[in-house]
Design a protein that fits this description.
- By secondary structure, the protein is mainly α.
- The chain has ten helices and no strands.
- The model has no long low-confidence stretch (mean pLDDT 93).
């Protein structure tokens, strides 16, 4: 690729491709410089260091991830929205393992402040749960349960961790159905929203 037009955004997109090929930890300044046909120093005009480069990949991947989920959930509510959310989550994670791994990393507040990724993620996730009538702190607890359940299942699936002959898709579908039942009968917290003591 030519040096002209090199931007932080293009570096993030190329870094996301590299993540799927070599893993998130495989993102290096040297490899990206090679792909753009420039010297390493040229990239430092657009990112401060490897940490920032990887964080930009995280933001890029997180934006793609939540946009794919939002598109799947649009116009749906309740169990239908939960299924669409879960299936889009899993599809992205399995199709883009390096990008998905990137979404699990934290981003410095000053870099995050310049994007809408966090707001879109909160709006989509909490919007999907709206039909279940949850309020804080139950809402946050439910989001954490869903995220950890999806992540754990996908990690095991990707590593071939399910040895039983039962079809993995059927277990996934039943698991999401069970989460729907749980969300409909969520044990309400007695804490309510409290200020810190």
């Amino acid at each position: 690729m030519a040096r002209a037009g090199l931007t932080a955004e293009r570096l993030a997109a190329a870094g996301a491709e590299l993540a799927d090929e070599a893993g998130f930890d495989g993102i290096t300044v040297s490899e990206l410089a090679r792909r753009f046909g420039v010297k390493d120093a040229s990239l430092y005009s657009h990112v401060k260091n490897l940490r920032e480069l990887r964080q930009r990949v995280t933001l890029y991947a997180a934006g793609e991830f939540i946009d794919s989920i939002a598109a799947a959930v649009a116009g749906r509510a309740g169990q239908e929205a939960l299924v669409a959310f879960a299936d889009a989550y899993r599809a992205y994670a399995l199709a883009h393992p390096g990008r998905y791994a990137a979404t699990q990393h934290q981003v410095d507040p000053e870099l995050l402040a310049g994007t809408t990724v966090l707001a879109r993620t909160v709006d989509t996730t909490y919007g999907m749960l709206r039909a279940y009538g949850l309020t804080e702190p139950d809402l946050t607890d439910a989001v954490r349960l869903l995220r950890s359940t999806f992540h754990g299942y996908i990690a095991l699936e990707a590593e071939g961790g399910f040895g039983h002959p039962r079809e993995v898709q059927r277990s996934w579908d039943r698991g999401v159905q069970a989460l729907h039942v749980l969300l409909e009968h969520w044990p309400r917290s007695e804490e309510g929203e409290k200020d810190d003591d």
